[in-house]
Amino acid sequence: xxxxxxxxxxxxxxxxxxxxxxxxxxxxxxxxxxxxxxxxxxxxxxxxxxxxxxxxxxxxxxxxxxxxxxxxxxxxxxxxxxxxxxxxxxxxxxxxxxxxxxxxxxxxxxxxxxxxxxxxxxxxxxxxxxxxxxxxxxxxxxxxxxxxxxxxxxxxxxxxxxxxxxxxxxxxxxxxxxxxxxxxxxxxxxxxxxxxxxxxxxxxxxxxxxxxxxxxxxxxxxxxxxxxxxxxxxxxxxxxxxxxxxxxxxxxxxxxxxxxxxxxxxxxxxxxxx
Length: 274
Ligand code: DGL
Hints:
This protein is an alpha/beta fold.
């Protein structure tokens, strides 16, 4: 008989906490285990091979803890590692483990937010380079045009708690203007990096009025709810004591200090070695 397990939520660092927060709001009954690979973050500018290797190691860590369902709450890992993990890694692993990403559930609904049929996607360089959003959105909304803009400075600013600084203003303005230059009729901007909601205020401030700015947390939470409803054989194995445990590959003290701005409440984490 299989033992009940916590749902695993993974990010390269703190960003996935913005997604976990929404998942917990929508599905508070389950137990969740969060891992931030802070020691090796950011992933955004790293090669496919490196992101793939790091993500696989973290996913294996969740499996060792008994998790059978892991959400990659990181666009970079979803873009660069998910397919490989699903197609080549999982089949070599015993038991029926599932790993889900954040790109497909977002692509499935994002076209509903635009009237002009022009969507802007702000993401890490890695996610942009992978073209995952352009390809996935086209599958669900063939008549929607997708314009991507890499924002390589945003994650370091956020990870270093400098997202309220003047430097952050400069880089928010710069990337939003670069996106607008691609098409001035963009009426919906997707924050395709789980860190970016921390810059929401500045992004709204520097975007054209009436532009819809969409963060992924609620979309991913709704999609997980739907997934569990469609897979009762997995849902019945998810333990339901409403616990949340947090792990980081870097200093737990640092994680606890910084994480509350992403999660909205204080966190006590444990350091682990990957
Ligand atoms: N939060 C990750 C994402 O959604 C990116 C952070 C990083 O560059 O490590 O893409």
